Amino acid sequence: MPFTADEAFDLLEQSRARGRFSQAYLLTGAPGAGKRQLLEKLAAVLLKAAENPLKHPDVHAIEPQMKSRVIGIEAMQELIGSQQMRSLMGGPKLAVIYDADRMNVSAANALLRTLEEPPGSTYFFLLSSQPEQLLETILSRCIEVPLRSTSKTPFTPRQVALLETLRGAPEGGDLAAVFSLVRQFSTLASEAKAEIEDRSEAAFKKEEATLKQVGARKDAIDEREDFYKALTESRYRSERDGLLAVLEQWFADALRQQHGAPEMEQPEFHEATASLAARLSTAELLRRSAALAELRDHFGRNIQEQLALECAFLKAFGS
């Protein structure tokens, strides 16, 4: 379950007070979720530094290099070497890796060997908005702290289009209406994927040209191409999950209206969800919402996407 940065800090501070603080944490979340703010608060406590804790002499950090946007083996070796040295201030040392998903294979493997037997009194903090790009073995050696933003993210144009289709659908939930909603969902998801593929290809071509200019090996270029392919799939899944999320919120708002909750996730559509709340029982709303939750689970497995989509929409929006 994602936490706000303040919630995560409170939990981690409790772990530290009980002597259960880990030596390796992975702070994840979308840009703006508060990863650096959380890191700064943790550094202040661990280093007993009230002002500018991330500028402390015993904080060593690396991030992607300006030209290649990659964290290479040289930077990683320098970071690891700094953790083998004596603390400058006599306390713990912090090793910070910003945009950790940008490590190349050599850097990731070097970090992995260190995480298997981390130096004493050293804490590793990896920050990433794309943790699925990290090696599974690195993920297994870090405690992930997933963060969520406290500000409400506005709906994307595609999410609004999907909600407008749902608002305009007939209340009976006949097959034609259900499959029209399926087609709309699929079309919007496909449009998003095409745009993501175009952006990833353009970004890779630009990076490829830079890598060739600096004399990078072919395997390094191939590695970055694989990265962008994986990034494309990750971003597509995020876009698709965002479309599914607004449908889940649709039913959640209907339940809120049944029980007099003061705030809605989708206040612009309150009349439509109020009509839904009046027409269906709480048990029926929960059943339909569960169908979408099951679809989200199926999206995370090797199940044919279109078939899973049709089955779930029949359960959620059918008569």
Describe this structure in words.
The protein is an alpha/beta fold and 319 residues long. The protein has two domains: 5-146, P-loop containing nucleotide triphosphate hydrolases (Rossmann fold), CATH 3.40.50; 157-317, no CATH class. It has eleven helices and five strands; from the N terminus they run H-E-H-E-H-E-H-E-H-E-H-H-H-H-H-H. Strands 2-3-4-1-5 form a five-stranded parallel β-sheet, with helices on both faces. Helix 7 runs antiparallel to helix 8 (218-258). It is globular, with a radius of gyration of 23 Å. It starts with a helix and ends with a helix.
Write the layout of secondary structure elements.
Blueprint: H1 5-17, E1 24-28, H2 35-47, E2 59-62, H3 73-84, E3 93-97, H4 105-116, E4 122-128, H5 136-140, E5 143-146, H6 157-168, H7 175-213, H8 218-258, H9 270-279, H10 282-299, H11 305-317
Parallel strand pairs: 1-4, 1-5, 2-3, 3-4
Summarize the structure.
The chain is of the alpha/beta class and 319 residues long. The protein has eleven helices and five strands, in the order αβαβαβαβαβαααααα.
